């Protein structure tokens, strides 16, 4: 069973994921795997170079600053880049799933709904936190200002829209209540037989 994990920037997805890992649950972090695939798949590399130019790679390593700059204000290019990367990640993920023996695994993707990856999931968990908490956490973590956090938030679905599509919700405003919520969801997931 594939359990998607998503939530807005700074909601605490990575924090929640660590708890699932400590329960022995396999996890797949879409963003991390996407970067590895962009650096290692020759097919993906050649498609990205065809789209964005040779400078997209430097010594066979992704030139992230160049790519970010290219697609930042160009929705069309971003869509085309996603159309290269997402199918490759989905394919890799399906192979990963086929190798698992655990009752369920967690698939973390910050833009699970935005890129329709919920189609890969049997259940979806949404991590939530108040906007102010999310902003101040990301400012502290990434050493950026409020405007920069808000700019990143603008590219994501609203928390309300995500909640509407969730099977489970984890409220991460008070860290003391986090483990308890995760354990409860874990127990429920262990009871589900698809
Ligand atoms: P992003 O989408 O930006 O990757 P995320 O949803 O994975 O973010 P985390 O990295 O888990 O969020 O959390 C953001 C920051 O807030 C981290 O520095 C984390 O340690 C901190 N944090 C997470 N949960 C709490 C909490 N309940 N109380 C205080 N700080 C928290």
From TrEMBL:
Instruction: Give the similarity note.
Output: Belongs to the CoaE family.
Q: Does the keyword rRNA-binding apply?
A: no
Give residues annotated as binding ATP. Answer: 10-15
What this chain does, per the entry, is described as:
Catalyzes the phosphorylation of the 3'-hydroxyl group of dephosphocoenzyme A to form coenzyme A.
What catalytic reaction does the record list?
A: 3'-dephospho-CoA + ATP = ADP + CoA + H(+)
EC number(s): the record gives 2.7.1.24
- Localization in the cell: Cytoplasm
Alphabetical UniProt keywords: ATP-binding, Coenzyme A biosynthesis, Cytoplasm, Kinase, Nucleotide-binding, Transferase
Q: Which PROSITE patterns match?
A: DPCK
Natural source organism: Wenyingzhuangia heitensis
Q: What class of enzyme is it?
A: transferase
Q: Which domain of life is it from?
A: Bacteria
Q: In which pathway does it act?
A: Cofactor biosynthesis; coenzyme A biosynthesis; CoA from (R)-pantothenate: step 5/5
Look up the signal peptide feature and give its range. Answer: none
Cited InterPro entries: Depp_CoAkinase, P-loop_NTPase
Which sequence ranges form a coiled-coil region, renumbered to this chain? Answer: none
Q: Which gene encodes it?
A: coaE
One GO MF annotation is: dephospho-CoA kinase activity
- Put simply, this protein is called Dephospho-CoA kinase
């Amino acid at each position: 069973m594939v359990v998607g994990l998503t939530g807005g920037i700074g909601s605490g997805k990575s924090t929640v994921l660590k708890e699932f890992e400590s329960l022995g649950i396999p996890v797949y972090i879409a963003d991390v795997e996407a970067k590895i695939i962009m650096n290692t798949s020759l097919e993906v590399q050649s498609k990205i170079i065809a789209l964005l130019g040779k400078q997209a790679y430097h010594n066979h390593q992704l030139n992230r600053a160049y790519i970010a700059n290219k697609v930042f204000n160009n929705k069309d290019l971003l869509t085309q880049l996603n159309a290269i990367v997402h199918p490759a990640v989905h394919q890799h993920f399906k192979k990963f799933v086929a190798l698992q023996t655990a009752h369920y695994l967690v698939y973390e993707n910050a833009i699970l709904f935005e890129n329709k990856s919920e189609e890969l999931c049997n259940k979806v968990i949404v991590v939530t936190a108040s906007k102010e908490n999310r902003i101040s956490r990301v400012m502290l973590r990434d050493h950026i200002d409020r405007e920069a956090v808000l700019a990143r938030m603008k590219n994501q679905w609203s928390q309300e829209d995500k909640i509407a599509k969730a099977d489970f919700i984890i409220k991460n405003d008070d860290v003391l209540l986090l483990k308890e919520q995760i354990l409860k969801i874990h127990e429920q997931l262990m009871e589900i037989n698809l």
